[in-house]
Amino acid sequence: DVKVTQSSRYLVKRTGEKVFLECVQDMDHENMFWYRQDPGLGLRLIYFSYDVKMKEKGDIPEGYSVSREKKERFSLILESASTNQTSMYLCASSPPTGETQYFGPGTRLLVL
Amino acid sequence: GQNIDQPTEMTATEGAIVQINCTYQTSGFNGLFWYQQHAGEAPTFLSYNVLDGLEEKGRFSSFLSRSKGYSYLLLKELQMKDSASYLCAVRWSGNTPLVFGKGTRLSVIA
Predict the structure, then answer these.
(1) A58, B97: Cβ pair inside 8 Å?
(2) How do strand B70-75 and strand B60-65 relate by DSSP bridges?
(3) Residues A87, A112, B85, CA angle at the centre, nearest 5°?
(4) Coil, strand or helix: which one is A85?
(5) Chain B residue numbers touching A91 (CB-CB < 8 A)
(6) In what order do the strands lie in the sheet with B60-65?
(7) Is A106 at the interface with chain B, CB within 8 A?
(8) What string of pLDDT tens digits covers the 110 residues of chain B?
(9) Is the dihedral of CA B56, B60, B65, B69 positive or negative?
């Protein structure tokens, strides 16, 4: 079974803090993705990566950065958290062959 | 743009059949996925269509018409545990990230 894990299920941070969300997958997948999910807006792609040290902007990259130093780990960084970044953050991974994406359990982030 | 449209909410009765529709822009289409997401949980994969026709998997089936830019997810013998959001997602051209519709929240009532 594919396993995608995220470092926290719930997180509370203050405005201006630097926030790290970690994602690890154990299936040797090349592709990894970060989405945020908000009511009425659905899943929106923040960043993705097709290989180590590689990153591509998604639809809403502003206010975020990412790091992929190892194949199995993809980190999402909020340089200076703001209240409008309160959301559910979902990490996903997939092989390069066009198969489905497998999601982690999500991190519900509250920025006060 | 890469628009995906699906109804926001649906309600159906336990034991019945429900069809959730999804329409998308056809240009560059390279596959359609359906996911189920229970409240507070991650999406889980249900089905994948890349060719026209019906794919059946137990109580769930998914249909695709590429020329019409249309898919549906059919759920038979509805159970209360089927109450969830159902997400339609499309891949356009090659190994690109999935684009998700906003989801259809299905409520199954007794």
Answers:
(1) yes
(2) antiparallel
(3) 20
(4) helix
(5) none
(6) B4-5, B18-24, B70-75, B60-65, B53-57
(7) yes
(8) 578 999 999 999 999 999 999 999 888 888 999 999 999 899 999 999 999 999 999 999 999 999 999 999 999 999 999 999 999 999 987 778 899 999 999 999 99
(9) negative
